[in-house]
Design a protein that fits this description.
The protein is of the alpha+beta class and 76 residues long. The protein has one helix and six strands. The chain has one domain. A hairpin with a 2-residue loop joins strand 3 and strand 4.
Length: 76
């Protein structure tokens, strides 16, 4: 996998514009956040984001984060 230098995330407004969270979808392996490092992944997740918007009535935004900063490294 290539280095992740930017990240796209589907985010829902909860109670207003100041209250947001990354949305996720339940899969056979468990919950999966709707995030991706490239547009191909984002395009594959879009139908899930659209379904969540329809089912919840919430506004869904696609955000793009472009600053990478390593906060911590955890090793064995």
């Amino acid at each position: 996998m290539p280095r992740i230098d930017s990240l796209y995330a589907f985010v829902a407004e909860d109670t207003g514009s100041g209250d947001e969270g990354i949305i996720g979808a339940k899969t056979a392996e468990g919950w999966m956040p709707l995030v991706g490092a490239d547009m191909a992944r984002v395009k594959s997740l879009r139908p899930l984001a659209e379904a969540i918007a329809r089912e919840t009535g919430k506004t869904i935004k696609l955000l793009h984060f472009e600053t990478r900063r390593e906060v911590e490294i955890i090793s064995k």
